[in-house]
Amino acid sequence: MDNYWLDEFLHHLAVERGLAENTLSSYQRDLHQFVSWLTEKEIRAVEQVRRNHIMAYLLGLQKKGRAPATISRQLAALKSFYHFLMQEGAVQQDPTTNLDSPKLAKKLPHVMTPAEVDRLLSMPDAATPSGSRDKAMLELLYAAGLRVSELMALDTTHINLDMGYVQCFGKGSKERIVPMGSVAAGSLNEYLEEGRKKLKKHPSETALFINKRGSRLTRQGFWKILKKYAQIAGITKEIAPHTLRHSFATHLLENGADLRSVQEMLGHADIATTQIYTHLTKSRIKEVYDKTHPRA
Q: Residue 103, by phi and psi: left (phi above 0), alpha (psi -120 to 50) or beta?
Protein backbone atom coordinates (compact mmCIF):
# COMPACT_ATOMS: atom_id res chain seq x y z
CA MET A 1 0.00 0.00 0.00
CA ASP A 2 1.21 3.52 -0.85
CA ASN A 3 2.43 5.38 2.25
CA TYR A 4 1.81 8.86 0.78
CA TRP A 5 -1.12 9.77 3.05
CA LEU A 6 0.52 8.25 6.10
CA ASP A 7 3.62 10.39 5.54
CA GLU A 8 1.41 13.46 5.01
CA PHE A 9 -0.44 12.75 8.27
CA LEU A 10 2.77 12.33 10.28
CA HIS A 11 4.10 15.57 8.79
CA HIS A 12 0.84 17.28 9.82
CA LEU A 13 1.21 16.01 13.40
CA ALA A 14 4.83 17.15 13.63
CA VAL A 15 4.59 20.54 11.94
CA GLU A 16 1.04 21.80 12.41
CA ARG A 17 0.12 20.17 15.72
CA GLY A 18 3.63 20.19 17.19
CA LEU A 19 3.32 16.81 18.88
CA ALA A 20 6.18 15.54 21.03
CA GLU A 21 8.67 13.13 19.47
CA ASN A 22 7.55 10.21 21.65
CA THR A 23 3.91 10.74 20.64
CA LEU A 24 4.86 10.94 16.97
CA SER A 25 6.82 7.70 17.25
CA SER A 26 3.80 6.02 18.81
CA TYR A 27 1.51 7.17 15.95
CA GLN A 28 4.07 6.08 13.38
CA ARG A 29 4.52 2.64 14.91
CA ASP A 30 0.77 1.97 15.29
CA LEU A 31 -0.16 3.18 11.81
CA HIS A 32 2.70 1.35 10.09
CA GLN A 33 1.44 -1.81 11.78
CA PHE A 34 -2.05 -1.14 10.38
CA VAL A 35 -0.68 -0.44 6.88
CA SER A 36 1.27 -3.74 6.98
CA TRP A 37 -1.96 -5.54 7.88
CA LEU A 38 -3.76 -3.86 4.95
CA THR A 39 -0.98 -4.94 2.58
CA GLU A 40 -1.35 -8.54 3.76
CA LYS A 41 -5.09 -8.29 3.01
CA GLU A 42 -4.28 -6.85 -0.44
CA ILE A 43 -6.04 -3.56 0.35
CA ARG A 44 -4.17 -1.08 -1.81
CA ALA A 45 -5.51 2.35 -0.83
CA VAL A 46 -6.87 4.18 2.23
CA GLU A 47 -10.21 4.86 0.51
CA GLN A 48 -10.80 1.09 0.17
CA VAL A 49 -10.84 0.60 3.95
CA ARG A 50 -14.28 -0.08 5.42
CA ARG A 51 -15.64 -0.36 8.94
CA ASN A 52 -15.46 -4.18 8.85
CA HIS A 53 -11.73 -3.97 8.02
CA ILE A 54 -11.06 -1.80 11.08
CA MET A 55 -13.09 -4.16 13.28
CA ALA A 56 -11.27 -7.21 11.91
CA TYR A 57 -7.92 -5.55 12.54
CA LEU A 58 -8.78 -4.67 16.15
CA LEU A 59 -10.22 -8.13 16.75
CA GLY A 60 -6.97 -9.63 15.46
CA LEU A 61 -5.03 -7.57 18.00
CA GLN A 62 -7.35 -8.81 20.73
CA LYS A 63 -6.83 -12.45 19.69
CA LYS A 64 -3.07 -11.89 19.84
CA GLY A 65 -3.48 -10.97 23.49
CA ARG A 66 -2.88 -7.23 23.13
CA ALA A 67 -3.91 -5.24 26.20
CA PRO A 68 -7.11 -3.13 26.05
CA ALA A 69 -4.92 -0.01 26.46
CA THR A 70 -2.90 -0.98 23.38
CA ILE A 71 -6.03 -1.60 21.28
CA SER A 72 -7.53 1.67 22.53
CA ARG A 73 -4.37 3.54 21.51
CA GLN A 74 -4.40 1.90 18.06
CA LEU A 75 -8.03 2.91 17.50
CA ALA A 76 -7.29 6.47 18.64
CA ALA A 77 -4.47 6.66 16.06
CA LEU A 78 -6.76 5.33 13.32
CA LYS A 79 -9.52 7.81 14.26
CA SER A 80 -7.05 10.70 14.05
CA PHE A 81 -5.70 9.43 10.74
CA TYR A 82 -9.12 9.13 9.10
CA HIS A 83 -10.28 12.46 10.51
CA PHE A 84 -7.26 13.98 8.73
CA LEU A 85 -8.05 12.09 5.50
CA MET A 86 -11.65 13.36 5.58
CA GLN A 87 -10.42 16.95 6.02
CA GLU A 88 -8.04 16.52 3.10
CA GLY A 89 -10.75 15.01 0.89
CA ALA A 90 -8.73 11.82 0.46
CA VAL A 91 -11.69 9.64 1.54
CA GLN A 92 -15.46 10.10 1.29
CA GLN A 93 -16.35 8.19 4.46
CA ASP A 94 -14.72 7.60 7.83
CA PRO A 95 -14.65 3.86 8.66
CA THR A 96 -13.84 4.60 12.33
CA THR A 97 -17.06 6.55 12.99
CA ASN A 98 -18.89 5.35 16.14
CA LEU A 99 -16.27 2.67 16.85
CA ASP A 100 -15.68 2.52 20.59
CA SER A 101 -12.48 1.67 22.40
CA PRO A 102 -12.47 -1.38 24.66
CA LYS A 103 -13.38 -0.64 28.27
CA LEU A 104 -10.26 0.06 30.26
CA ALA A 105 -9.97 -0.87 33.89
CA LYS A 106 -9.01 2.18 35.89
CA LYS A 107 -5.40 1.71 36.85
CA LEU A 108 -4.40 3.99 39.67
CA PRO A 109 -0.80 5.18 39.60
CA HIS A 110 1.64 3.98 42.24
CA VAL A 111 2.51 6.60 44.82
CA MET A 112 4.90 6.75 47.75
CA THR A 113 4.08 7.89 51.26
CA PRO A 114 5.70 11.14 52.44
CA ALA A 115 7.92 9.03 54.72
CA GLU A 116 9.09 6.91 51.76
CA VAL A 117 9.82 10.04 49.74
CA ASP A 118 11.88 11.45 52.62
CA ARG A 119 13.81 8.19 52.83
CA LEU A 120 14.46 8.07 49.09
CA LEU A 121 15.56 11.70 48.89
CA SER A 122 18.01 11.26 51.77
CA MET A 123 19.89 8.40 50.04
CA PRO A 124 22.27 10.29 47.68
CA ASP A 125 25.62 11.31 49.12
CA ALA A 126 25.67 15.02 48.29
CA ALA A 127 29.39 15.19 49.15
CA THR A 128 30.24 13.53 45.79
CA PRO A 129 29.62 15.17 42.38
CA SER A 130 27.24 12.45 41.15
CA GLY A 131 25.51 12.23 44.54
CA SER A 132 25.01 16.00 44.54
CA ARG A 133 23.47 15.73 41.07
CA ASP A 134 21.25 12.83 42.07
CA LYS A 135 19.95 14.62 45.15
CA ALA A 136 19.19 17.75 43.12
CA MET A 137 17.36 15.68 40.47
CA LEU A 138 15.21 13.76 42.94
CA GLU A 139 14.42 16.86 45.01
CA LEU A 140 13.42 18.84 41.90
CA LEU A 141 11.35 16.01 40.45
CA TYR A 142 9.31 15.75 43.64
CA ALA A 143 9.21 19.52 44.28
CA ALA A 144 7.88 20.42 40.82
CA GLY A 145 6.12 17.24 39.68
CA LEU A 146 7.99 17.17 36.38
CA ARG A 147 7.89 14.37 33.84
CA VAL A 148 11.25 12.62 33.60
CA SER A 149 11.60 13.72 29.96
CA GLU A 150 11.08 17.34 31.10
CA LEU A 151 13.68 16.94 33.84
CA MET A 152 16.27 15.56 31.42
CA ALA A 153 15.58 18.36 28.90
CA LEU A 154 16.33 21.15 31.40
CA ASP A 155 19.19 23.54 30.71
CA THR A 156 20.86 25.64 33.39
CA THR A 157 18.95 28.68 32.07
CA HIS A 158 15.59 27.01 32.85
CA ILE A 159 15.87 27.37 36.62
CA ASN A 160 15.64 30.51 38.72
CA LEU A 161 16.86 29.84 42.25
CA ASP A 162 16.22 33.37 43.51
CA MET A 163 12.56 33.33 42.47
CA GLY A 164 12.18 29.59 43.15
CA TYR A 165 10.75 28.35 39.88
CA VAL A 166 11.60 26.06 36.98
CA GLN A 167 10.69 26.64 33.34
CA CYS A 168 9.93 23.42 31.49
CA PHE A 169 8.53 22.33 28.17
CA GLY A 170 5.94 19.56 28.24
CA LYS A 171 4.06 17.60 25.61
CA GLY A 172 3.84 19.45 22.33
CA SER A 173 6.61 21.79 23.54
CA LYS A 174 4.11 23.65 25.72
CA GLU A 175 5.92 25.90 28.18
CA ARG A 176 4.96 26.14 31.83
CA ILE A 177 6.45 27.75 34.91
CA VAL A 178 6.36 25.60 38.06
CA PRO A 179 7.33 26.69 41.57
CA MET A 180 9.85 24.68 43.58
CA GLY A 181 10.46 24.66 47.31
CA SER A 182 13.47 25.94 49.22
CA VAL A 183 14.83 22.43 49.82
CA ALA A 184 14.99 21.66 46.08
CA ALA A 185 16.45 25.12 45.39
CA GLY A 186 19.13 24.52 48.04
CA SER A 187 20.08 21.14 46.56
CA LEU A 188 20.24 22.63 43.06
CA ASN A 189 22.41 25.48 44.27
CA GLU A 190 24.88 23.05 45.88
CA TYR A 191 24.97 20.95 42.72
CA LEU A 192 25.58 23.97 40.48
CA GLU A 193 28.28 25.33 42.78
CA GLU A 194 30.13 22.05 43.25
CA GLY A 195 28.95 18.83 41.58
CA ARG A 196 28.16 20.10 38.09
CA LYS A 197 31.45 21.97 37.80
CA LYS A 198 33.33 18.73 38.50
CA LEU A 199 31.19 16.66 36.11
CA LYS A 200 31.31 19.23 33.31
CA LYS A 201 33.88 18.43 30.61
CA HIS A 202 32.67 20.55 27.70
CA PRO A 203 32.53 24.36 28.17
CA SER A 204 29.59 24.62 25.77
CA GLU A 205 27.40 22.04 27.58
CA THR A 206 24.06 23.65 28.54
CA ALA A 207 22.32 20.63 30.11
CA LEU A 208 21.43 21.03 33.77
CA PHE A 209 21.97 17.38 34.66
CA ILE A 210 25.03 15.74 33.13
CA ASN A 211 26.58 12.28 33.35
CA LYS A 212 30.15 11.24 34.16
CA ARG A 213 31.11 11.79 30.51
CA GLY A 214 30.01 15.41 30.76
CA SER A 215 26.99 14.97 28.44
CA ARG A 216 23.26 15.37 29.09
CA LEU A 217 21.91 12.59 31.29
CA THR A 218 19.33 10.35 29.57
CA ARG A 219 15.98 9.04 30.78
CA GLN A 220 17.47 5.54 30.89
CA GLY A 221 20.35 6.85 33.01
CA PHE A 222 17.94 8.49 35.42
CA TRP A 223 15.83 5.32 35.65
CA LYS A 224 18.90 3.32 36.76
CA ILE A 225 19.72 5.96 39.35
CA LEU A 226 16.17 5.95 40.74
CA LYS A 227 16.06 2.16 41.00
CA LYS A 228 19.41 2.13 42.80
CA TYR A 229 18.30 4.58 45.48
CA ALA A 230 14.89 2.93 45.90
CA GLN A 231 16.66 -0.37 46.57
CA ILE A 232 19.09 1.22 49.04
CA ALA A 233 16.16 2.94 50.80
CA GLY A 234 14.43 -0.44 51.19
CA ILE A 235 11.35 0.63 49.22
CA THR A 236 9.78 -2.61 48.02
CA LYS A 237 6.70 -1.24 46.23
CA GLU A 238 6.83 -0.81 42.46
CA ILE A 239 8.76 2.32 41.52
CA ALA A 240 8.60 3.85 38.04
CA PRO A 241 10.09 7.04 36.56
CA HIS A 242 6.76 8.85 37.09
CA THR A 243 6.33 7.70 40.72
CA LEU A 244 7.64 10.96 42.21
CA ARG A 245 5.39 12.95 39.85
CA HIS A 246 2.36 10.91 40.96
CA SER A 247 3.40 11.32 44.61
CA PHE A 248 3.80 15.09 44.13
CA ALA A 249 0.21 15.42 42.84
CA THR A 250 -1.32 13.12 45.45
CA HIS A 251 0.44 14.75 48.39
CA LEU A 252 -0.60 18.25 47.22
CA LEU A 253 -4.27 17.20 47.00
CA GLU A 254 -4.12 15.39 50.33
CA ASN A 255 -2.92 18.61 51.92
CA GLY A 256 -5.65 20.80 50.48
CA ALA A 257 -4.37 22.00 47.08
CA ASP A 258 -7.14 22.68 44.56
CA LEU A 259 -7.44 20.50 41.48
CA ARG A 260 -7.02 23.33 38.94
CA SER A 261 -3.70 24.43 40.46
CA VAL A 262 -2.39 20.86 40.43
CA GLN A 263 -3.56 20.47 36.81
CA GLU A 264 -1.60 23.60 35.86
CA MET A 265 1.54 22.49 37.67
CA LEU A 266 1.41 19.05 36.04
CA GLY A 267 0.78 20.52 32.60
CA HIS A 268 -2.33 18.43 31.93
CA ALA A 269 -4.41 19.69 29.01
CA ASP A 270 -7.56 18.02 30.40
CA ILE A 271 -8.54 18.19 34.07
CA ALA A 272 -9.95 14.66 33.76
CA THR A 273 -6.35 13.43 33.64
CA THR A 274 -5.63 15.16 36.95
CA GLN A 275 -8.81 13.82 38.56
CA ILE A 276 -7.36 10.32 38.81
CA TYR A 277 -5.36 11.59 41.78
CA THR A 278 -8.57 12.41 43.64
CA HIS A 279 -9.34 8.67 43.60
CA LEU A 280 -6.06 8.08 45.39
CA THR A 281 -6.77 10.71 48.03
CA LYS A 282 -10.27 9.29 48.61
CA SER A 283 -8.74 5.83 49.09
CA ARG A 284 -6.30 7.33 51.58
CA ILE A 285 -9.09 9.10 53.50
CA LYS A 286 -11.06 5.83 53.71
CA GLU A 287 -7.95 4.02 54.92
CA VAL A 288 -7.39 6.60 57.69
CA TYR A 289 -11.08 6.43 58.66
CA ASP A 290 -11.02 2.63 58.87
CA LYS A 291 -7.93 2.70 61.06
CA THR A 292 -8.97 5.48 63.42
CA HIS A 293 -12.77 5.57 63.82
CA PRO A 294 -13.96 3.45 66.78
CA ARG A 295 -16.98 2.18 64.83
CA ALA A 296 -15.43 1.84 61.38
A: beta
**CA neighbor of 58 nearest in space, from 72, 47, 44:** 72
Q: Is 282 annotated as catalytic?
A: no
Residues pairing with 166 in the sheet: 159, 178
* pTM attached to this predicted model: 0.64
Is 165 noted as a catalytic residue in this protein?
Answer: no
Chain center to CA of 148: 7
Q: Given the residues 66, 73, 79, 242, select the one marked as catalytic.
A: 242
Q: Which of 133, 196, 245, 251 is catalytic?
A: 245
Superfamily of domain 114-241: Intergrase catalytic core (1.10.443.10)
CATH number for the 4-88 domain, one of 3.10.20, 2.120.10, 2.60.40, 1.10.150?
A: 1.10.150
CA angle (104 as vertex; 103, 105 as ends), nearest 5: 120
> Would you call 245 a catalytic residue per the annotation?
yes
For 62-71, 98-107, 248-257, which range has the lowest pLDDT when averaged over its residues? 98-107
